[in-house]
Specification:
The protein has 183 residues and is α+β, with helices and mostly antiparallel strands. Helices cover 34% and strands 25% of the residues.
Length: 183
């Protein structure tokens, strides 16, 4: 008879567990019970990649030239980053600079419409003419302007520090349309 009581107790425990688990399942399935585990967010959507042709500008032999490139990006920040990377590659391939440079760091301050762009190396020597330096930055600024972003100013850095140059002051944010009148 003791054995029969143990079986009854076991059946009652199994029954109660089934009722509790079934009730929890119904509550969870009808969004009365919220569980925040590692389940994907139903409301969060990932940005879809966008492909776009962009123009990269540079001055070579005294004339403004451009190269059209296809880039794919998911955000405006990624678009600017890819465009600037393409610009550094283009000016190196076109032999406007003597050494390959890259984009070390990129940040956009939306409140001031300022782009902070840190390059991996200084793209010119101190002995380069002021005109050659300004031509190079005109190409960069025209390329940034062509991205249709909200960027109005650009601070150029090297290894996250202000460029030190004998001819040009890089300690302030340059308006990207500043050099239009020169070229």
């Amino acid at each position: 008879m003791g054995h029969n009581n143990q079986n009854n107790a076991l059946y009652i425990i199994i029954f109660l567990q089934s009722v509790v688990l079934g009730g929890l399942y119904v509550l969870w399935n009808n969004d009365f019970l919220i569980w925040q585990g590692n389940q994907p967010n139903k409301h969060k959507t990932e940005a879809k990649p966008t492909s776009e042709r962009v123009d990269v500008y540079f001055i070579k032999h005294g004339t403004l030239q451009k190269e059209s490139l296809l880039i794919t990006y998911k955000s405006d920040h990624e678009k600017i980053s890819k465009v600037l990377t393409q610009w550094t590659e283009t000016v190196w391939e076109e032999k406007i600079i003597n050494q390959r440079i890259g984009v070390d760091f990129l940040s956009i301050d939306n409140a001031t419409s300022t782009l902070y762009c840190s390059l991996t190396k200084k793209p010119f020597s101190n002995q380069s003419s002021t005109r050659k330096k300004l031509e190079m930055f005109y190409g960069l600024f025209k390329t940034i302007e062509n991205t249709n972003s909200s960027i109005k100013y650009c601070i150029i850095l090297c290894h996250n520090h202000v460029f030190q140059d004998d001819h040009i002051d890089f300690s302030f944010a340059w308006p990207i349309d500043l050099l239009h009148d020169l070229f």
